[in-house]
């Protein structure tokens, strides 16, 4: 309210209505408008259960419930905003579903580990921007969480062509990026990949040896 801005914030640990029975929280991405009103709450749908031997061990499902739905993009002055969180970044189905629902910006507030962030953070964000032809805005936690966990940081913004247009590095930081929607729509006109998608083929691959024979015996 003081600054008259929209805020995308996440992820918050939220006790849902099922807390008494599950004792698990939800990982939430909250969107506030300039009046301070809660506009949307997205609950992370993909939970990070990974074990990189000698480097990283995480089992988010041990204390977190998965969300049950993606939210339709929210209209903001910067464009139509799609909400996701951290590990959701690894699933292109999310970005493509949000783009199909009208998103122009995708947001991924995150806390990547140092091993995964240094290897995958930027390349995944750029891939999501290119395939969806959206701006991708990714705020990232930086620094030491506790004795066993350090976050990678490197918040950044990617444009719909896949170029990094703003970036932070180690430690707390602030970066600015211009959201150019005419440029976004030019890219979509010049390379209309969404119209080229073959929905009649995806998900219909038959494994070798499993074909049904129609030949007479």
UniProtKB/TrEMBL annotation:
The cross-references to InterPro entries, in alphabetical order and at most eight, read: C-N_Hydrolase, C-N_Hydrolase_sf, Nit1/2_C-N_Hydrolase, UPF0012_CS
Record keywords: Hydrolase
Xref: SUPFAM superfamilies: Carbon-nitrogen hydrolase
Q: Does the keyword Membrane apply?
A: no
Highest taxon in the source lineage: Eukaryota
Q: Which GO terms describe its molecular function?
A: hydrolase activity, acting on carbon-nitrogen (but not peptide) bonds, in linear amides
List, for all copies, the residue spans of the domain called CN hydrolase: 1-181
Gene3D superfamilies associated with the record: Carbon-nitrogen hydrolase
Family affiliation: Belongs to the carbon-nitrogen hydrolase superfamily. NIT1/NIT2 family.
* Name of the protein described by the UniProt record: NIT1 amidase
Organism of provenance: Turnix velox (Little buttonquail)
Q: Which gene encodes it?
A: Nit1
């Amino acid at each position: 309210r003081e600054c008259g801005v929209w805020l995308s914030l996440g992820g918050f640990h939220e006790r849902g209505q099922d807390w008494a029975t599950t004792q698990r929280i939800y990982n939430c991405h909250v969107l506030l408008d300039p009046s301070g009103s809660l506009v949307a709450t997205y609950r992370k749908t993909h939970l990070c259960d990974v074990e990189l031997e000698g480097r990283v061990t995480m089992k988010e499902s041990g204390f977190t419930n998965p969300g049950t739905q993606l939210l339709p993009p929210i209209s903001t002055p910067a464009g139509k905003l799609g909400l996701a969180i951290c590990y959701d970044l690894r699933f292109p189905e999310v970005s493509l579903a949000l783009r199909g629902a009208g998103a122009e910006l995708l947001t991924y507030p995150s806390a990547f580990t140092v091993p995964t962030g240094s290897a995958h953070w930027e390349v995944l964000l750029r891939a999501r921007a290119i395939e969806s032809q959206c701006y991708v805005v990714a705020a990232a936690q930086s620094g030491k969480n506790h004795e066993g966990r350090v976050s990678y940081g490197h918040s950044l913004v990617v444009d719909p062509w896949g170029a990094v247009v703003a970036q932070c590095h180690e430690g707390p930081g602030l970066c600015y990026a211009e959201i150019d929607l005419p440029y976004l729509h030019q890219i979509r006109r010049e390379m209309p990949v969404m119209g080229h998608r073959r929905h009649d083929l995806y998900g219909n691959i038959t494994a070798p040896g499993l074909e049904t024979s129609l030949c007479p015996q």
